[in-house]
Amino acid sequence: MVQNQRSRPETLAGILDDETLIALEERLGYRFLDRAWLAQALIHSSFAHEFPQVGPSNERLEFLGDAVLNLIISDALLAARPEASEGDLSRLRASLVNARHLAALSGRLALGACLRLGRGEEQQAGHQKPSVLADALEALIGAVYLDGGYAAARGVVLALFQESLAIPGQAAVTQDYKTALQEYVQKWLKVSPEYRLVQESGPAHARRFIVEVWVSGAPLGQGEGNSKKQASQRAAQQALLRLQRREMLGTQGMNRKRET
Description:
- This protein is mainly α.
- It has helices at 18-28, 35-41, 45-50, 59-80, 86-97, 99-108, 119-123, 130-148, 150-160, 162-166, 177-188, 228-259, and strands at 194-201, 208-215, 218-225.
- The protein folds into two domains: 3-166, Orthogonal Bundle (Ribonuclease iii, N-terminal Endonuclease Domain, Chain A); 177-259, 2-Layer Sandwich (Double Stranded RNA Binding Domain), CATH 3.30.160.20.
- It has a three-stranded antiparallel beta sheet with strand order 1-2-3.
- Helix 2 (35-41) packs antiparallel against helix 8 (130-148), helix 4 crosses helix 8 (130-148) and helix 4 (59-80) packs across helix 9.
């Protein structure tokens, strides 16, 4: 069955511009065959209630994404921890798929800035609520699954959870990604990263910042947080993962050439 023929959502013209969707695809590392799925994943129920003409909210995608996420993480943990008991695996999975951790991963994607919320939810800083961000990430995973199938969803999830899966049960460990990125680009590219504040919004007691990190004149990562420091760390984390992924792919390509 072709995935993108399953109850395809209506086109959300005018609600989310192509530039926003393309930028999110870049951060996610996946290009949609049908961006209507991506657009639907970003529509909160409060927005769909105020503007019913846009079609369904992301709730059904969230339901699907939750199941897909649990399957992929369960499979990854089984492979990584062959000695673990069922109880240990359940606890490890719970530490990886809880709302707090999913919200943190959403920050790496700057997902909050892309969400469309109703007026009331917007006024209550819904873009920063862990529950809203976690639900949106699950909806996004569901959208990838419907658009590209299980293999596409697995690739996205494993890239997002790459570091967390390397240290199961310690998903919330704080690291200095800015320093790590600085050392990486100076060693390999002989330059220094540049951090740019892209957006600052929200009331004084609940500010929201979006920061981009640029390397060699090009944007390489974007992060969102309650402070510039937090947003910068998340931007650096995304940039570092992207650089490491490119290095890995380059090494694989060289190995294939040697084999031929």
